[in-house]
């Protein structure tokens, strides 16, 4: 396990998702592209060739039903039919509108209207949504896919080339993903085939995966779909589709994945569960000692991690080697712990507007505090105020109904994140621009930078640093057993202050009795803090 | 029903002395993440021999939501 620069992985370029599907069907034909469980006993496998044939049939059906140049919403849990729908829609020249499955029915209908969708594809769980769509829209239940596939296939058998001959323009919109900020206002991010293909291609140059991957993150999130499914499809390895988080652990045992793509919430939860289980069985001290010993042995070139931490590996099915993590900041303690256990945790940075990956640590070249090396072909520069600016083929066409939103005059996309890039092209994030505290002396303080330090203490559940009447203040929501222990937290802040320049020192510590208010995406609502 | 629900929730909340009421908010009062909630629902499914659709899980905000769902479907 070396940590040093090495050449980027080589891949062949592709410019549309149709090209990718055709190429993989030709070269991987009968190999498994997707597999998933149906009921408790049955495992369904879909080869690359079957996937292409079913896309062709469904795409033919859509075009023959005059769904052409339309926006078509897709709503449902993660499932094979979701992926089939997405590919049939984007490869027939239509635009797939990915809808958040956690939204209530009325909000789903609002977004469908806002995106001017002419059809809605929905899974059985969302039959009520299908029943409420307006008369101008067509409802296409996934439950009816078998009959659509038969109809499309019959047309193909009788010589229809309506779908396969449909030319896809790489610069035209392919998909719309909605982002939700802390203000609660959703914005539709319009991505082209080129955006999606370039992102898969360039991210694959940084990271390589081998073996099967379990896809866990929702497909209406660009990270879950583009990285968690399309990139793996591009590598040519099978994707196990976890259709419900309730079955995640048993399905890990069933699928025995070597890779997965996660957001920090999952990593943190797994980490906590592993330590909780160790504590309950009285083996936490042993686990800590083994980690120390293993790390020393590793430096000597002896890798016993699979044996020493087999109980940890069993949680993930026994074969997990790599987790690619993105979507929110991740403390380095998780990266180090997973590495000690023999699971590589590659932290990355992405935003939907960049399709989504901007940077990711590499299999054999990483920095634990960094969100990775900037992708080849994607330019990152730091604005005068420290904001991370991005340009490249992965940057969106624009927001739906607000094409220029988010872009600076010279075409750079302003991410709203603050950071810097080191001499080796590793990107480091320090906070959010909108949270930046500008002190009366003109100095800038990124609250997240200090919060990260504070949260590292086990007594702290949540912390927010803010400017309270020109006094740099922290509000802390302590863990239950530390409630009201003002002195403990005063001392903690004093300790952290010692490492900071004067202007970054926190002057007031307020303890909370309740958790901070949060948005629907579980982000703390900073504007509510007084 | 509430007592059984409370018992299962108690196992998953970090602190033993936390007071769980019918109006307790799952996230802010009990400190549960969305992933914790999924795990708890799995425990409910085993205990009450029911299957909670994923979509209903997202609708659980307070303890009462769970109790009412279970009273309706068990």
Pick out its properties.
heterodimer, A: 530 residues, alpha/beta, Rossmann fold, GMP Synthetase, Chain A, domain 3, 3 domains, 9-stranded mixed β-sheet, 7-stranded mixed β-sheet, 34% helix, globular, B: 74 residues, mainly alpha, Non-ribosomal Peptide Synthetase Peptidyl Carrier Protein, Chain A, 4 helices, 55% helix
Describe the structure.
The complex is a heterodimer of chains A (530) and B (74). Chain A is α/β, with parallel strands linked by helices and 530 residues long. Chain A folds into three domains: 10-37 and 45-168, Rossmann fold, CATH 3.40.50; 245-372, Rossmann fold (3-Layer(aba) Sandwich), CATH 3.40.50; 436-528, ANL, C-terminal domain (GMP Synthetase, Chain A, domain 3), CATH 3.30.300.30. Helix content of chain A is 34%, strand content 24%. In chain A, a hairpin with a 2-residue loop joins strand 23 and strand 24. By secondary structure, chain B is mostly helical. Chain B has a single domain, classed as ACP-like (Non-ribosomal Peptide Synthetase Peptidyl Carrier Protein, Chain A). Helix content of chain B is 55%, strand content 0%. Chain B is globular and about 30 Å long.
**CATH fold assignment of chain B:** Non-ribosomal Peptide Synthetase Peptidyl Carrier Protein, Chain A
Largest interface: A-B, 22 and 23 residues
Whole-number total of structural domains of chain A = 3
Structural class by sheet pairing and helices of chain A: alpha/beta
Oligomer: heterodimer
What is this structure's SSE topology?
The complex is a heterodimer of chains A (530) and B (74).
Chain A: H1 17-28, E1 32-38, E2 42-47, H2 48-64, E3 71-75, H3 80-90, E4 95-98, H4 105-114, E5 119-122, H5 127-132, E6 138-141, H6 145-157, E7 173-180, E8 186-192, H7 193-206, E9 213-215, H8 222-235, E10 239-241, H9 248-255, E11 259-262, H10 264-280, H11 284-299, H12 305-308, H13 310-315, E12 322-325, H14 332-341, E13 344-350, E14 357-360, E15 373-374, E16 378-382, E17 387-392, E18 398-399, E19 413-421, E20 427-432, E21 437-438, E22 444-445, H15 447-455, E23 460-468, E24 471-478, H16 486-497, E25 508-511
Parallel strand pairs in A: 1-10, 3-4, 3-5, 4-7, 5-6, 9-10, 9-11, 11-12, 12-13, 24-25
Antiparallel strand pairs in A: 1-2, 7-8, 8-18, 13-14, 14-15, 16-17, 17-19, 19-20, 21-22, 23-24
Helix pairs in contact in A: 1-2, 2-3, 2-6, 7-8
Chain B: H1 2-12, H2 34-48, H3 54-57, H4 63-73
Helix pairs in contact in B: 1-2
């Amino acid at each position: 396990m070396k940590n040093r620069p090495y050449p980027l992985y080589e891949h062949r370029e592709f410019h549309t998702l149709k090209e990718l599907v055709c190429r993989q069907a030709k070269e991987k034909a009968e190999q498994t592209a997707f597999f998933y469980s149906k009921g408790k006993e049955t495992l369904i496998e879909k080869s690359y060739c079957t996937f292409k044939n079913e896309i062709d049939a469904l795409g033919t059906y859509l075009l023959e039903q005059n769904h052409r140049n339309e926006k078509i919403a897709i709503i449902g849990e993660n499932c094979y039919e979701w992926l089939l729908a997405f590919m049939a829609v984007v490869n027939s020249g239509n635009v797939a509108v990915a809808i958040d499955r956690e939204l209530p029915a009325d909000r789903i209908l609002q977004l469908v209207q806002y995106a001017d969708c002419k059809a809605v594809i929905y899974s059985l769980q969302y039959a009520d949504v299908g029943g409420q769509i307006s008369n101008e829209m067509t409802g296409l239940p996934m439950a009816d896919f078998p009959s659509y596939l038969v109809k499309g296939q019959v047309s193909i058998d009788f010589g229809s080339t309506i779908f396969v001959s449909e030319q896809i323009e790489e610069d035209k919109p392919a998909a719309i993903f909605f982002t939700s900020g802390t203000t609660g206002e959703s914005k539709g991010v319009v991505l082209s085939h080129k955006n999606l293909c370039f992102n898969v291609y360039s991210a694959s140059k940084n990271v390589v995966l081998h073996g099967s991957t379990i896809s866990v993150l929702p497909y209406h999130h660009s990270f879950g779909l583009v990285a968690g499914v399309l990139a793996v499809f591009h590598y040519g390895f099978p994707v196990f589709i976890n259709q419900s988080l309730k079955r995640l652990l048993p399905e890990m045992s069933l699928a025995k994945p070597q890779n997965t793509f996660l957001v920090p919430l999952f990593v943190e939860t797994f980490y906590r569960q592993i330590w909780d289980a160790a504590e309950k069985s009285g083996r936490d001290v042993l686990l800590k000692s083994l980690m120390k010993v293993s790390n020393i042995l590793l430096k000597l070139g002896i890798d016993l991690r699979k044996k020493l931490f087999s109980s940890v590996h069993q949680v993930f099915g026994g074969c997990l080697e790599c987790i690619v993590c993105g979507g929110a900041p991740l403390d380095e303690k998780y990266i180090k712990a997973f590495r000690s256990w023999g699971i590589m945790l590659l932290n990355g940075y992405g935003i939907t507007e960049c399709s989504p990956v901007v940077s990711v640590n590499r299999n054999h070249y990483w920095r634990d505090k960094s969100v990775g090396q900037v992708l080849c072909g994607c330019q990152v520069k730091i604005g005068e105020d420290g904001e991370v600016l991005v340009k490249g083929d992965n940057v969106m066409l624009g927001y739906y109904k607000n094409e220029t939103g988010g872009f600076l005059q010279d075409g750079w996309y302003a991410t709203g994140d603050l950071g810097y890039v080191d001499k080796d092209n590793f990107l480091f994030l320090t906070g959010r621009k909108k949270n930046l505290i500008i002190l009366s002396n003109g100095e800038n303080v990124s609250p997240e930078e200090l919060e990260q330090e504070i949260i590292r203490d086990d007594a702290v559940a949540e912390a927010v640093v803010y400017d309270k009447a020109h006094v740099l203040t922290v509000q802390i929501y302590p863990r239950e057993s530390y409630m009201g222990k003002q002195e403990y937290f005063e001392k903690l802040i004093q300790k952290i202050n010692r490492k900071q320049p004067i202007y970054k020192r926190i002057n007031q510590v307020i303890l909370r009795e309740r958790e901070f208010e949060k948005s629907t995406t579980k982000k703390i609502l900073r504007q509510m803090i007084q | 029903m509430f007592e059984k629900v409370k018992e299962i929730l108690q196992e998953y909340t970090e602190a033993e002395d936390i007071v769980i009421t019918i109006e307790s908010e799952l996230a802010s009062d009990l400190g549960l993440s969305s992933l914790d909630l999924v795990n708890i629902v799995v425990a409910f499914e085993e205990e009450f021999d029911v299957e909670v659709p994923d979509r209903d899980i997202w609708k659980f905000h307070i303890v009462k939501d769970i109790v009412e769902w279970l009273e309706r479907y068990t």
